[in-house]
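Entry 14. Two folds queued back to back today. First construct below, sequence then structure tokens.
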Amino acid sequence: MTKKPNKLPNLEDSLSEITQLIDRMEHSEQTLEQSLDSFERGITLVRHCQKILDQAEQKVQILMQNNNQEELIPYDNNDQQQGPEIDEANND
């Protein structure tokens, strides 16, 4: 099996590496062991990305609670009534 780096990359680099792994698995002839290594690395990166996104979501929820909002308001570009108040005078 291949050596795994001690530190996982940031979200953007992880997503880029996942894309490269997928491309390599789809378009090159790898041995079974190489394919399994790529798959294992991809799963590790996907889990790492999910953890980063979960942490970001928790931070957003904490910030929203600090603003006395109990749940996240879905963003709807066509209906500004549901989103945060925006000074419409500045929207030209």
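Second construct, same run, same settings:
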Amino acid sequence: MRHASVPDLINTLQEREDCVVHPSSGQPRLPPGVSIPEEPQQYFDLCGGLELFLDAEYPSTVYGPASFVQAHLVLLAPLTLSEIESNIPRSEPSWNWHLIADAGTQNESVVVHVDGPHAGRCYSGFWETYPQDSPVLARSFATFLHALVMDEGQTHWEELFGKAMN
């Protein structure tokens, strides 16, 4: 099934009373030489974050640019950067993962690959298994956002994206 574009999804959410579309606050700051994929770039141009389906069983948040940070620093806390670097070589692709969303708690985050051949893919950022066991949830940010919007907070992410990737 073809997914809707990021602008179309944002427009749909702006019309809903159970969703909050925050005004755009610009693009996230990334380290030099790291570029943000096109779909998240569109997202940040159009809004500064989303609060989705606030009254549903499974509300979620898609972050604004201030929370779009390298995932290790949050999901592996309280480890220091030195401790993280001693356990995860800089050559690991997960160093290119940034936080993009959560399912109501930081324990259930979604990360997006920002650079390289897998740019735009969204992965599970569940704190107990991150980053060793972080399955692909969606092959693009628009596909991820589309699934959330179509589900309207009725299904837990694990089940929703387990179905989507099978």
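Quick look at the second one. The chain has a mean pLDDT of 89. Strands lie at 20-21, 50-52, 60-62, 97-102, 108-113, 122-126, 136-138.
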